[in-house]
Specification:
297 residues; two-stranded antiparallel ribbon; 42% helix; ten-stranded mixed sheet; elongated
């Protein structure tokens, strides 16, 4: 019994057709048929029912299929383990990110690509809710997301940033005369916020709900800089991370919210349980080292 025979058998079982299986494997169709016949002779039983238009598993074939898949997975795992130990990483990593943060993500990915050129990298932007779903489902290996005081279940993370969320208003806005306001002061006032699905908006909605009111969102935008520009024009109070609002001190007044129940917490997150590929593990290790300020992953 040879590995390529098991590979051909699994491909035909999944495709239900010898020709499509051969195309998937980039080999000649007669070779696929011949190798599966050899496998059947060795096992002494037919694995495939070829009598109909579609190829179907026999009862014996259905029993053998999970073992064939397990054998192929074990070989792939052994190869990955060797690659990991020798530094010859291959494969693919998928990274997600919210739109605004202070992490040099392009620099991180460039360094990782230089160290592991055989690993393909994809990067996508989305809101925090969709990124968390991507991590849990396995579509993403790692992501920069906004979270609350506790991590979503099933995730592990390194903190990227943790700062208070403030109200940023134009100098002529009625709240501009205050340095500190209560959360209840925002009740009924036009607010400018990131849209639902983002971490900052989730924190705002949660805090206002706990205070007994629903925030009046006058404008939504997906980027903090757009929120700031709307606030500069006097269209409402922009709910922003403190450091971002303070960077626009010439155009906006920063008003702290007391008690500071609103906080913007960004993390670099990955799955805490379930399989992690060697390539993803290497990227996560490099990211954690960068966030910790060390030189080596």
């Amino acid at each position: 019994m040879e590995l390529h025979q098991l590979q051909y058998f699994v491909a035909v079982a999944e495709e239900g057709n010898f020709t499509r299986a051969a195309e998937k494997l980039h080999v000649a169709q007669p070779g696929v048929s011949a190798q599966i016949r050899r496998l059947e002779r060795e096992l002494g039983q037919e694995l495939l029912d070829r009598s109909g238009r579609a190829v179907r598993l026999t009862e014996v074939g259905a029993a053998v299929l999970p073992y064939a898949r397990a054998a192929l997975a074990a070989v792939a795992g052994a190869r990955s383990a060797v690659d990991e130990l020798t530094g010859l990483l291959r494969g693919h990593v998928a990274v997600g990110t919210v739109t605004s943060h202070g992490v040099d993500l392009p620099g991180l990915l460039a360094e990782f690509h230089d160290a592991h050129p055989a690993v393909d990298i994809t990067l996508s932007e989305a809101d925090s809710d969709r990124l968390v779903d991507g991590l849990r489902s396995g579509r993403l290996d790692a992501a920069i997301v906004s979270v609350g005081s506790t991590l979503p279940a099933g995730l592990a993370a390194e903190v990227v940033d943790d700062q208070p969320i403030v109200a940023a208003v134009a100098p002529r806005h009625e709240l501009a005369v205050h340095e500190v306001i209560s959360l209840d002061t925002l009740r009924g006032r036009p607010l400018i916020s990131l849209p639902p699905g983002t971490g900052l908006r989730a924190r705002l909605d949660e805090a206002c709900a706990a205070a007994g009111f629903t925030p009046q969102i006058a404008f939504e935008a997906s980027k903090p800089e757009v929120l700031a520009q709307l606030a500069v024009r006097g269209l409402g109070a922009a709910i922003l991370p403190g450091a971002y609002a303070e960077s626009l001190a010439g155009q906006l007044r920063t008003v702290r919210i007391d008690p500071p129940v609103l906080r913007g917490r960004l993390v670099f997150a990955w799955r805490a349980d379930g399989p992690v590929s060697p390539a993803a593990r290497a990227l996560i290790g490099r990211a954690r080292a960068m966030l910790a300020g060390t030189d080596r992953p």
